[in-house]
Specification:
The chain is mostly beta strands and 258 residues long. 3% of the residues lie in helices and 69% in strands. It has one domain (5-257): OMPT-like (Lipocalin, Beta Barrel). It has a 10-stranded antiparallel beta barrel. The longest helix has 9 residues, at 5-13.
Amino acid sequence: MRFILVPLVLLAALPAHSQGAERHWYFDVHRYAPSFEGHYVDTSGNNPVDVDLGRDLGLKKDSTKIGFGLEYQGPRFGVELSRDEQDYKGLNRVARTININGTDFNANTLVSSSLKATTNTFNWTIRAFKRPQYWIGIDLGARATQLEIAANGTELVTQANLSASYKATLPVPQLGLAAGFVALDSRLVGRAYLHYLGFKGASYTHPGADLRFFPISWLGVRVFTDAEHFKVPKGSVKDTLDIALDRSGTGAGIVARW
């Protein structure tokens, strides 16, 4: 599956149909606690890493901080800014030698670990086709997730204490299709999207959906689901990278509209 840039540019140039006067700002606070699985290998430079989040570290969801989002949605386009943060913790006796920032944790080492994931998103939606009750558009934007891994271990035989930390940022352009609808006299607002990038065997897929209900015209509730799949096989982008990460979950919050 690949998106072709020329048709997208042509679609973006089309005038939006059925231009209406409805414009809204949204501000929401929410909790989003996704699962996070996969492996991260980077053998380049002076700070190599080779670790599997589940099999090696046993990382599981620990806590989720309040996230927030700010949006403008108009007849021709929409703009979204959001931020989310989650913490994961693990305690596991590793079955193989792993490496975090150049420090080796040998097999049978008991490792206590934590991971902090912070995601910032900017998204611009061009509503290329619009009707009073629904629209179809194009998403353009950027999303960056910063990973902070910390690990402490005690070797079984030598009882040596080990400690290491590692930081990495996964910046990804957002490119794909989106569609939305309004119903019940604008009390129900929904949106779904699919973003995709593919390059030399590496891929990024990002589907999601968002549903909002406003029992009061200016105050409502929000439920959403979101997933990300990073795949960078060794030799696709670089011989030193081998990344496969999957993050998915559901969230809920309160949203104000004006």
